[in-house]
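Hi support team,

I've been running sequence recovery on a batch of backbones for a student project. Most finish fine, but this one hangs at about 90% for roughly twenty minutes before it completes. I'm not sure whether the input is malformed or the queue is just slow. I've pasted the structure tokens below so you can try to reproduce it. Let me know if you need the job ID as well.

Thanks,
M.K.
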């Protein structure tokens, strides 16, 4: 440390931020095991053990909330995870530099749009008088109020998420593909390999380690859905499918003021995430010759 103190000084600000914003707040998780009263404080509030967890698991909404959260996350992972890889593979094959940059600009731009703006765009496009319903009417169909139908919520959430983030998520794969040796590609062409065969035998093996890491991290965050978009897309009519654990925690904790109960739900969510992360990592290690996170 004495020989490389300059490097440690560079790391220090980031380490301090992590401690302040990630580790210090863990102290507040204690209120999950207390009948928390803001006037009495965290340590002054009486201990109630696991009663908040028992209350949550015995509520009629428990299975619905857990199911909605898991379905939205798993479907998002299944449909959203391959898209950035496909985008990166396609962009990597574009030889025209100017065209490639323009396509990248179009694909990356949605990532820098606020979630609130994205949701506003979704509401405009899917409104009963919006362009999507105009197209449906043009072909003789009936107008659909997408935002009030529970069955459409998950599709809307996942598709809008892919549109907003898939292009930007492809950057890491595109960077990894830049390491592909041109000699290997030329040799594959000489051997008569078409583009699909080149992708399977050269490109995919190159980004395989990165794909494994990204998949493990994504699977470990299955229960960590973005609160903002789900909450903003909610209407009183689509709650049967749009009410997930993060939005429920917000309503119970901040709107109803039951801090201990909402903290218990959040802690339950975090424990499930850690369990999924460790489990998926172990499964991937067994299937991937010992290589995991």
């Amino acid at each position: 440390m004495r020989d490389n103190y300059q490097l440690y000084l560079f790391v220090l600000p980031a380490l301090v931020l992590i401690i302040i914003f990630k580790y210090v707040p863990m102290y507040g998780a204690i209120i999950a095991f207390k009948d928390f009263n803001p006037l009495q404080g965290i340590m002054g509030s009486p201990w109630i053990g696991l009663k908040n967890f028992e209350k949550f698991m015995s509520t009629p909404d428990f299975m619905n909330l857990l199911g909605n959260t898991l379905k939205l996350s798993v479907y998002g992972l299944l449909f959203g995870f391959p898209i950035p890889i496909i985008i990166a593979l396609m962009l990597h094959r574009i030889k025209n530099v100017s065209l490639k940059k323009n396509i990248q600009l179009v694909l990356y731009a949605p990532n820098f749009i606020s979630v609130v703006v994205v949701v506003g765009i979704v509401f405009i496009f899917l409104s009963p008088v919006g362009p999507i319903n105009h197209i449906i009417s043009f072909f003789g169909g009936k107008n659909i109020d997408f935002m009030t139908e529970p069955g459409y919520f998950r599709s809307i959430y996942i598709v809008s998420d892919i549109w907003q983030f898939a292009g930007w998520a492809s950057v890491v794969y595109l960077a990894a593909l830049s390491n592909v040796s041109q000699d290997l590609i030329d040799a594959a062409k000489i051997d008569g390999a078409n583009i699909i065969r080149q992708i399977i035998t050269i490109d995919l093996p190159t980004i395989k380690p990165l794909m494994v890491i990204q998949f493990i991290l994504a699977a470990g965050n299955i229960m960590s859905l973005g609160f903002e978009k789900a909450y903003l897309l909610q209407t009183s009519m689509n709650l049967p499918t749009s009410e997930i654990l993060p939005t429920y925690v917000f309503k119970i904790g901040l709107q109803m003021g039951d801090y201990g109960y909402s903290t218990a739900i959040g802690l339950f969510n975090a424990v499930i995430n850690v369990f999924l992360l460790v489990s998926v990592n172990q499964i991937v290690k067994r299937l991937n010759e010992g290589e995991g996170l």
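--
Follow-up from support: It reproduced on our side and the slowdown came from queue contention, not your input. The longest helix spans residues 259-287. No action needed from you.
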